[in-house]
Amino acid sequence: MSDALPLGSVIGILGGGQLGRMLSVAASRLGFRTHIYEPMENPPAAHVADRLTTASYDDTEALRAFAASVDVITYEFENIPTAALDLLEAARPIRPNRRALAISQDRISEKDFLTGLGLTTAPYSAVNGMDELQAALSRIGAPAILKTTRLGYDGKGQARLRGPEDAEAALAAMAGAPAVLEGFVTFSHEVSVIAARGLDGSVACFDPGENVHRDGILHSTTIPARLSPAQRSDAVLLAARILNALDYVGVMGVELFVTRQGLLVNEIAPRVHNSGHWTQNGCAIDQFEQHIRAVAGWPLGDGSRHSDVVMENLIGDDILRVPEIARERNAALHLYGKSEARPGRKMGHVNRVQVPAAGK
Amino acid sequence: MSDALPLGSVIGILGGGQLGRMLSVAASRLGFRTHIYEPMENPPAAHVADRLTTASYDDTEALRAFAASVDVITYEFENIPTAALDLLEAARPIRPNRRALAISQDRISEKDFLTGLGLTTAPYSAVNGMDELQAALSRIGAPAILKTTRLGYDGKGQARLRGPEDAEAALAAMAGAPAVLEGFVTFSHEVSVIAARGLDGSVACFDPGENVHRDGILHSTTIPARLSPAQRSDAVLLAARILNALDYVGVMGVELFVTRQGLLVNEIAPRVHNSGHWTQNGCAIDQFEQHIRAVAGWPLGDGSRHSDVVMENLIGDDILRVPEIARERNAALHLYGKSEARPGRKMGHVNRVQVPAAGK
């Protein structure tokens, strides 16, 4: 642990949402303090952080002071402006590194990177204007989905095409932004691997979870996922290949489609991931602590699971069900402290721990 | 949950040590904020709390402002000055209640209360001066231990007597404070029950843990404890009797000696307890969340355990073993963020989760 951050060090976290909040709690367990950088007032992470800077990502003075006050910088979301990253990186290490961020900020770079590693993705084609869209449609076929290449998040900036007749409306929905057409894939279910890589290059993965989405937002993750032993090891090896290729440090979420032709990479996220929240109640070391360990140059946990878990997201008005969930046995609530419950807003989650029926 | 605190409420915590720190994290999981009141600068709890007041317990203005800013008040230690409690209680509910505090602040009141409930304690006798000490010694016999009646904590204010020849030195060690002579008890081991009682009067206990002390400080707690089924149910019923008699709301630690004559109550603590730290990695709802649930008028968790755990305290220089512990499988570290490691100071703990050898 020669490169390891000493106890009492300060970890800077860009973004003050629920992921930053849970990272901050995990950092405290390892004796670290956290400093949150977030443009919005009263962010969830600030309730459990040592320090908060409320400033925009173009406030160079605030960014410099933030960097000077921390020992290492990490982030809870991938769409951080490049200029801010340049400034921060000049002062302190940013983990995971810039390359992982650059790739995941752009759907085309991401898919080019993945296919370059020999991994399979859905068929895709860059689309700038109607000519390219029509060419892409004839190559990929319909139905397909048109997405802006950047700032994709929870189903925003996306349009479905049942056939060529939807091309005009779909292109209009992109509002002139560079886009990518993705073919639909026939898959039986989606799984994700929460993978981590340490500063020493060691890789550890949590068991894959099986995801169910509703309205483009993750609804639940069930551990263990339905996978054959061969698929399970494929999933883990594939995730490790991605992390090694990026010289990655931290936790990454890798979403996979399970198809007859094998596993297909849907998306990667260079951060802790909603589909890894189950680890909080299924493992001695959860994804948040795993990320902090990696970023701090500590040894990784091995990802082993002591319990099966079903994670359910609480979205919008689901928060009204908290009194009822609080009465359930073995249901661990994790609420984010957001004051307003808007439709589609992630308000919390519940990890239902599957306890063996017989007393031990 | 009609009396339940709504999401976003603020829980005031008296005391900013590691217990306050872990209570604050648990409160955040339920969507609450915390406000810590602590006389010392830079307390561990402040790193993960929404607000901190640094003021002494005789600062009436600070106490009033604190009370006005919170919805309910709880505490992490029992020796809070009475005048401060009077002032706070006039503004907001204090949970657990004053009676529990008053009893546990005084060893004689505590033992009188317990024996009044029909429970067994070590033989004891109040000692004010040499005459009473000699009378107590002849009744109880030696070896025995003389303790100040108040402010007892981790072996401080205590003196052992091998026989009457030690009486003078022991009495001198009390420095004129009221004291109690306690007889030694022959016991095979010590266990503790972490019990909780909700605002609705429901009681839930975690499985008893088996404690090992070193130099008067808790060294480890092992779950499950060595107890027969009859002893196990005795332990839980006895804890419930204590909580019900006090109309208690919150978590209490009940330390018991296992003797040939049955279970004997060593000590009660009206707060979350070091011997309950294992619940963080053994249960879906741990003792800290259980306490917050009670204090907030929420339903209690049932205390069920998904994993066996061995908790080890990291005292003083044990903190130097963190790099080595961080490499262990299934070892969950919980460090308190204290900057200075003094001998006897609790710096953190590790919960070693006993994961079944075969993959599930």
From TrEMBL, chains A, B:
Its EC number is 6.3.4.18. It catalyses: 5-amino-1-(5-phospho-beta-D-ribosyl)imidazole + hydrogencarbonate + ATP = 5-carboxyamino-1-(5-phospho-D-ribosyl)imidazole + ADP + phosphate + 2 H(+). Pathway: Purine metabolism; IMP biosynthesis via de novo pathway; 5-amino-1-(5-phospho-D-ribosyl)imidazole-4-carboxylate from 5-amino-1-(5-phospho-D-ribosyl)imidazole (N5-CAIR route): step 1/2. The keyword Nucleotide-binding applies. One of its GO terms (biological process) is 'de novo' IMP biosynthetic process. Keywords: ATP-binding, Ligase, Nucleotide-binding, Purine biosynthesis. GO terms for molecular function: 5-(carboxyamino)imidazole ribonucleotide synthase activity; ATP binding; metal ion binding; phosphoribosylaminoimidazole carboxylase activity. Gene3D superfamilies: 3.40.50.20, ATP-grasp fold, A domain, ATP-grasp fold, B domain. ATP binds at residues 107, 147, 152-158, 182-185, 190, 213, 266-267. Catalyzes the ATP-dependent conversion of 5-aminoimidazole ribonucleotide (AIR) and HCO(3)- to N5-carboxyaminoimidazole ribonucleotide (N5-CAIR). PANTHER family: PHOSPHORIBOSYLAMINOIMIDAZOLE CARBOXYLASE, PURINE BIOSYNTHESIS PROTEIN 6/7, PUR6/7. This is N5-carboxyaminoimidazole ribonucleotide synthase.
